[in-house]
Design brief:
single chain, about 375 residues, mainly alpha, Ribonucleotide Reductase, subunit A, 14 helices, disordered C terminus, binds fe (ii) ion, Ferritin-like_SF
């Protein structure tokens, strides 16, 4: 496969074909109300938002720091190498780190779009098909938003990193609907929650913060959906089936734990690829990411009953068992509150601006 780096988003080209197994499943059982799923579906319908309207794209980002990235989130910031770099080079690192990161978000969102569409086809329950179809629309809006941000505000794009590509491939290739759920709704969505949470809470650019808060609110629904479906299904499976799923999830945890060090970024920037990767692996920024990631994923695995001896042993080896006590519902409720707060603050600003301008029309974005 080929990675194109350090170009604008417009320079990324081509397609990637993954053979996808499985069956498209019709159901004739239309009348099986499932209250929790339907509640999520209703939320999914009602909380659609349009990035064109909801966000203030006229906001000008700092071209040398398009996300407002604090130094502690730059992977190589805690190093002699960074101390030696002149400010111009540091700006270059900030822009490219933003470009690499948002590019991975973009490719991951497309993965989510493809997987959600597969869930619509494969899942047996009609209510789950309903919800998954709102997720398809959510993910399309996320792809749209990240590609616009990359194009208009960052200007640098990267190809998909091999670890993310490998995960996506493993998920899409499998023909069983619950593997699509497990891979996408639990593991990749967990990755999304952690990554967008960091963007929302730690970046200082207001557009980047707001955009990620809205995306995060959608992702929280997607995770809740996956958990709901899988916790029922996995209660009933055999030990052999459970063990196979635990292996799949552990393998993904391994990749997520060890294999996101911005390889393409560093080989492109040319400050010494190997040294930069080493520094990245030990960086405080990556520790923050891992903490956020596994404090979401581990309780999720536990709540869907993938927490047998094999899983516990595997998580123990990665040093992740301490996260098993966390409460995912608290975290997700906090994500939702944060998005609401940003939304309310933004509406208030809009109203204030309208009043200042002496406008008499009320209203506002829906
Ligand atoms: Fe998404
Ligand atoms: Fe999602």
């Amino acid at each position: 496969m080929e990675h194109q780096t350090a170009a604008g988003l417009a320079d990324l080209a081509g397609t990637w074909a993954v053979p996808a197994g499985g069956e498209a499943l019709f159901t004739w059982e239309y009348d099986r109300p499932a209250e929790r799923l339907l509640r999520l579906y209703t939320k999914g319908k009602q909380r659609q938002w349009d990035a064109d309207e909801r966000l203030d794209w006229s906001h000008e980002v700092d071209p040398s720091d398009p996300l407002g990235m604090p130094d502690e989130l730059i992977w190589i910031a805690d190093s002699e190498l960074w101390d030696r770099l002149p400010e111009k080079e540091r700006a270059h690192v900030r822009v490219h780190t933003a470009g690499w990161t948002y590019s991975q978000f973009l490719h991951g969102e497309q993965g989510a779009l493809v997987c959600a569409a597969r869930v619509v086809q494969m899942v047996p329950d009609i209510n789950a098909k309903f919800f998954a179809s709102t997720q398809v629309m959510d993910e399309a809006r996320h792809v749209e938003g990240f590609s616009r941000y990359l194009r208009e505000k960052i200007g640098v794009g990267y190809g998909v990193t091999s670890s993310l590509q490998g995960l996506l491939e493993a998920i899409v290739r499998d023909s069983r609907w619950d593997f699509t759920y497990l891979g996408m709704q639990v593991l990749i969505e967990g990755l999304a929650l952690a990554s967008f949470g960091i963007q929302r809470d730690m970046m200082t650019d207001p557009l980047a913060k707001a955009f990620n808060a809205y995306v995060l609110q959608d992702e929280a629904r997607h995770v809740a959906f996956g958990q709901h479906a899988l916790s029922e299904y996995y209660r009933e499976i055999t030990d052999a089936e459970r063990s196979e799923r635990e292996e799949f999830a552990l393998e993904a945890c391994h990749v997520l734990h060890d294999r996101f060090a911005g390889e393409e970024l560093w080989s492109n920037l040319d400050y010494g690829t190997r040294e930069c990767i080493e520094i990245t692996r030990e960086s405080a920024s990556l520790r923050v990411f891992r903490y956020r990631l596994f404090s979401r994923i581990v309780p999720a695995l536990k709540s869907i009953h993938l927490f047998g001896p094999k899983m516990q042993e595997g998580l123990g080896r990665l040093g992740l068992l301490r996260f098993a006590k966390g409460d995912l519902h608290d975290i997700m409720a906090a994500d939702e509150r944060a998005a609401r707060e940003i939304e309310l603050a933004q509406r208030k600003r809009e109203i204030d601006t309208a009043i200042e301008a002496g406008g008499t029309g009320g209203g506002g974005a829906g």
